[in-house]
Amino acid sequence: MDSHSIDRLHNWGVDQNQSACDASNLVYSTHVGADRKTDVPGCLNEVKRDISIVTVLVGDGGVGKTALAARLLGGEPLSYPHGPTIQGSYKHRLKEHLILEITDTAGADGYSSLREDAIQEGDCFVLVVDLSRLSTYEYAEMLVSREMRGKLPNIIVGNMSGKASAVAALNKKLNRKERLLLQHKYTVAEKKVAEKARALAERTGCPYVEVHFNHEEKVDDVFLRALDDLENKQMRFLRLLRLRVI
């Protein structure tokens, strides 16, 4: 954990010497709808004022970062193709005292300085890969090894919308046999990219999920799982820090 993250812990009201921050003693509950409850270990439940977690969406251009943010904010599915995002910022209250400050970064290389600044300021990272395009996985590997500079994703998301969008765009131009061949091609590609993305998640120690952004109703689960991972990593750091203090 870097000095920026430590400073943000102090800003949240977390004292590195507090025994109350022992992850084994604290649990807070996040409710999603009426039928889902996620228990997340951490100190954030002890804070009784609003806190903001800077959550950065990273990934290649066109992988669905903006679509993911739009669904979280309650918007309609985005029509494809849509114009490239330079950089977007949104706020979303995920819990009574918990606000996500979402930064939707550009995938284009021409905006790398903006993306690097956003990564530097980020607390939580959602890395998105389009399962229909191997190049987006290769881009994700580059982000983790170079641009994120030691910061790790808190979740890797495989977007399953790419195949449906590509097939739909060509549907009227193809006969039945050609459509079936195209669907098979994308299915094989999805499996290959998914295996690589899952392996990257294992190497970086974060969850991996697959979501169809245009149809999925509970994309907030993506952010909840990312926060789970952020909390777990912070608690491991605080436990080590506390052992050193003792």
TrEMBL record:
Gene3D superfamilies for the chain: P-loop containing nucleotide triphosphate hydrolases
SMART domains reported for this sequence: RAS (SM00173), RHO (SM00174)
InterPro entries: P-loop_NTPase, Small_GTPase, Small_GTPase_Ras-type
Keywords: GTP-binding, Nucleotide-binding
GO cellular component labels: membrane
Molecular functions (GO terms): GTP binding; GTPase activity
PROSITE patterns: RAB, RAS
BP-aspect Gene Ontology terms: signal transduction
Pfam families named among the record's database cross-references: Ras (PF00071)
Designated name of the protein: Small G-protein Ras2
